[in-house]
Amino acid sequence: MTRLSIATWNINSVRLRAGLIQRFVEERRPDIVCLQEIKCRNGEFPTHVFTQMGFPHLHIRGQKGWHGVAIASRFALEEISEPDFCPQQEARVAAVRVKGITLHNLYVPAGGDEPDTQINPKFAHKLAFLARMEAYYAAHPTNEPLVLVGDLNVAPGEHDVWGHKQLLNVVSHTPVETQALDKVMARGGFIDLARIAVPPSEKLFSWWSYRSPDWTKNDRGRRLDHIWANRELAKQFDADSFSIHKNARAWEKPSDHVPVMAHFDI
């Protein structure tokens, strides 16, 4: 039996924050790191830094300027067909097979500021992305071990945000978004591993806004970063191993997201 640890982190520029990734890797020793919002093209990715960290296997889906996702692994990665979730063909999906597990690393669009598809094309784009996810995973084989990770840009539960009532009309926690994400989970047969490890009644965050003058004082966070497994793989999840590394939000020049990690016994 092999113990496999997978971390996900919206790093908000991999070149700017490669040192933070290295610090996290040294402290937590993940086997696989899935990154979102790398903000670089494939050839600009700091490959040598990851090789030095012990990640010789890379799968990069870069893009100039914004977006971009990547998977860094200690184990060999097999590239597979990537789901077509993004109507605008942005670099938001990376898919591989590793140690017999299918791994999808996603960066769902944030959706802008107004939760109204008539006046906000970004919100319409987000909902279209989620709808494509629902259709794809509903048709995906359920007997194949599958883990979905990434910045899904939706805080689904009442205690996944600092203030449920205050944020019901704020993008990332509106009912139309949370219901759409619930449909993806249900149709795909996914388990939200965070809520296996931590009761749904407990506050749990992975993101704190840069706009907050003192994020540690008011702790107005949201849980936007997720690790899901289908039922086949969820049987091998070690609930005691699940962790959200809140301390990384206090590091120098941090991302506004922090790493989330889970272990599987495969």
UniProtKB/TrEMBL annotation:
Q: Give the gene symbol.
A: xthA3
Which keywords does this chain's UniProt record carry?
Hydrolase, Magnesium, Metal-binding
The keyword Methyltransferase is assigned to this record: no
Q: What is this protein called?
A: Exodeoxyribonuclease III
Q: Where is the Endonuclease/exonuclease/phosphatase domain?
A: 7-257
The protein's matches in Pfam families, at most eight in alphabetical order, are given as: Exo_endo_phos (PF03372)
Q: Determine if Hydrolase is one of this entry's keywords.
A: yes
Q: Which InterPro entries match?
A: AP_endonuc_1, AP_endonuclease_F1_BS, Endo/exonu/phosph_ase_sf, Endo/exonuclease/phosphatase, ExoIII-like
Instruction: Name its species.
Output: Candidatus Phycosocius spiralis
Cofactors needed by this protein, per the record, are: Mg(2+)
Record's family?
Belongs to the DNA repair enzymes AP/ExoA family.
